């Protein structure tokens, strides 16, 4: 499994695309947080990373499928999948290796943004940022990245076309992140149905953790989604 994990890591950084994807992620976040006047923390008058944690999931929604789109699609296209199947690895180990490799890359993209929290804290004259909410938001961001990674790998396992894998992964991520929120706001969903529909979406649980309160139900939700998409990926590999 660790061999596959290492292979995934090396494959991503073997081309300029990997470095560009991470650089674009950090650049967009930096510009939105400190430069653009509508979202700049310097224009708020108080220390808060709320804008950053609201924006980053939308950026991850496109960056993570970029990271995962080659996971299995390239293996199919280049004929390497047959070689992988000859290794003494079960489909579960193969999927886990791919997942961990991509997840480490996603974590490496998120990790440098911690400097934003230190910067805002240093710039604050009084009070500073809410440490509990910031830690909770980062935990939510890591869980969100893990779910998007599982979805992206699952999408990549169904095609040998990396563009199709990217589009499918990004669409499913968008649907699960914001789709249920949008549906719950329709006028004919009322009387509590709208609340339960909203609960089915990722955004509901992400916002819950971002408040600094880690609930078991939120962890179970994220863990269940990750397990579900990794299981679908494993089943798809077995069919091949």
From TrEMBL:
Residues in the signal sequence: none
UniProt superkingdom: Bacteria
Its membrane topology: Multi-pass membrane protein
Domain (ABC-2 type transporter transmembrane) ranges: 51-176
Chain segments annotated as coiled-coil in the UniProt record: none
GO-annotated molecular function: ABC-type transporter activity
Keywords: Cell membrane, Membrane, Transmembrane, Transmembrane helix
Transmembrane segments: 12-34, 46-67, 99-119, 131-155, 162-180, 213-232
PANTHER family (UniProt xref): MEMBRANE COMPONENT OF ABC TRANSPORTER YHHJ-RELATED, MULTIDRUG ABC TRANSPORTER PERMEASE YBHS-RELATED
Protein name: Protein involved in gliding motility GldF
């Amino acid at each position: 499994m660790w061999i596959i994990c290492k292979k995934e890591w090396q494959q991503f950084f073997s081309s300029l695309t990997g470095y560009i994807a991470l650089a674009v992620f950090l650049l967009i976040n930096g510009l939105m947080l400190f430069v653009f006047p509508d979202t700049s923390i310097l224009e708020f008058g108080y220390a808060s990373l709320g804008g950053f944690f609201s924006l980053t999931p939308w950026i991850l929604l496109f960056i993570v499928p970029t990271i995962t789109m080659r996971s299995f699609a390239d293996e199919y296209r280049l004929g390497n999948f047959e070689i992988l199947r000859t290794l003494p690895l079960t489909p579960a180990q193969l999927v886990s290796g791919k997942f961990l490799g991509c997840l480490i890359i996603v974590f490496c993209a998120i990790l440098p943004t911690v400097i934003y929290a230190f910067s805002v804290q240093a710039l604050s004259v009084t009070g500073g940022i809410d440490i509990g909410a910031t830690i909770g938001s980062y935990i939510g961001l890591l869980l969100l990245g893990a779910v998007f990674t599982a979805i992206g790998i699952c999408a990549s396992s169904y095609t040998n076309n990396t563009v199709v894998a990217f589009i499918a992964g990004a669409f499913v991520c968008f649907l699960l992140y914001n789709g249920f929120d949008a549906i719950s706001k329709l006028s004919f969903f009322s009387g509590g149905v709208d609340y339960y529909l909203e609960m089915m979406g990722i955004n509901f649980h992400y916002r819950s953790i971002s408040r600094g309160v880690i609930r078991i139900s939120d962890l179970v939700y994220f863990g269940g989604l990750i397990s579900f998409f990794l299981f679908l990926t494993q089943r798809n590999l077995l069919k091949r």
